[in-house]
Amino acid sequence: MVHDRNKPLAPPSGENEVDLEDLSSAPIPKGPAVRARDEQELDFDLDSVLQKINAAVPVVVPMVVGTPTAAGAGPAAKMEKDPLPPGQGPTVGNYQLAGRMRSSPAAMVFMAHRVSQFGIRRPVVVKFAPKNNPAYARNREMLVDEYHAMALLDHPNIAAVYEAAEIDLGFYVALEYIDGPDARVFLDHKVKTKQQVPVEVAAFITIELLRGLEHAHTARGLDDRPLGIVHRDVNPSNILLSKAGQVKLTDFGVVKMRGRTAQETQPGMVKGKPAYLAPEYIRGEHLDHRCDVYSAGIFLFELVLGQKCFRAEGVDIFREVLAGVDLSRLAKANVPDKLAVIIARATDKDPKQRFITASDMGRALETWLQTNRYYVSATSLAAIL
């Protein structure tokens, strides 16, 4: 949800996590990885400054998928509103803000530009945690953890991170800007226009996602020890699709990893969108990379069906997830049997029955594509965006 510019700035809604207990906060360690300044008395009204930013920066949703412009032509992609022209927006740190995007519970999200000393402008995404948010200390820790995790990852299927810094207004992280919709916008458009995502393209998108996940799951720190990364929030809103047909995973804000700053998740609390959380996570059991494989399986289910896997709301969603995926819906929709088997294995309630790794699931999908002589690439995805 994006903040209404006509209302006072308030903490983003908690739609992305369910807190049953409050977490305590620990200070961010200062070091070379994060440029931070000691907190000090501010000589300006922080609330007023942030409200002026809200008023000055338009709400934009980059690349909302439109309708086909002509027979045989691809769908027209457009902004919900035009971003501010270069040179006109307010600044946060080293970045000039151009448009407000969908917020997360931990941060406001902006489309912005970084201007080099040579006048070259680079589009970026700025995730910004304002200091006037009562949960600032905790939100700052989440952004630091996201920065630390993403700074150690370098993969074409993971959005890049550029820098993080603390300023008088708050804490921000600058990330790669992807010139296309997230998968939630993409799926919603397909449902609205009654278009089906071709099964081979659905498999391709998922394979690309799994490649990014495998890289994260097997990443090592500077000490060459496994980081033990588990994303924990793999869902369509965090999967970005570029105009060129690239698939990129983003938002490592609730990542589980060795050495994270924020306090570990406590019993009775889960983070992430409930409809994509693995049953063992909801039950409070041991969590590993197979919970991300489960989420990827749910995502693939929704891609091939064009429907949400779990449709309950509120606390009822947890009961529905724990009851398991209704695989009969795949048969009713005439999803190819062997593809349905892959989805069934990925979304098994028992993590021991799932694919052992993300790459195992990816290879199964690649084999299915090859066996059925599907030839699909980024170009195939770009053609239907």
Give structural notes.
The chain is 31% helix and 15% strand. The model is unreliable at 1-44 and 62-78 (pLDDT under 50). Helix 4 (199-217) packs antiparallel against helix 10, helix 6 (290-305) packs antiparallel against helix 9 and helix 9 (337-346) packs antiparallel against helix 10 (358-371). It is globular and about 55 Å long. The chain starts with 16 loop residues before the first strand and ends with a helix. It has a domain at 183-382: Transferase(Phosphotransferase) domain 1 (Transferase(Phosphotransferase), domain 1, Orthogonal Bundle). The protein has 385 residues and is of the alpha+beta class.
The CATH superfamily of the domain at 183-382 bears the name Transferase(Phosphotransferase) domain 1
Q: Helical segment tally?
A: 11
N- to C-terminal separation? 23 Å
Structural class: alpha+beta
Total beta strands? 12
Q: What name does CATH use for the topology of the domain at 183-382? A: Transferase(Phosphotransferase), domain 1
Major beta sheet summary:
6 strands, antiparallel
CATH class of the domain at 183-382: Mainly Alpha
CATH-level-2 architecture of the domain at 183-382: Orthogonal Bundle
Order of helices and strands: EHEEEEEEHEEHHEEEHHHHHHH
Compute the CA-based radius of gyration: 21 Å
* Spatial order of the strands forming the largest sheet: 4-5-6-7-9-8
Question: Residue ranges: pLDDT <50 for 5 or more in a row?
Answer: 1-44, 62-78
Overall geometry:
globular
- Percentage of residues in DSSP E strands: 15-25%
Please tell me the overall pLDDT.
Answer: 80
Helix content: 25-40%
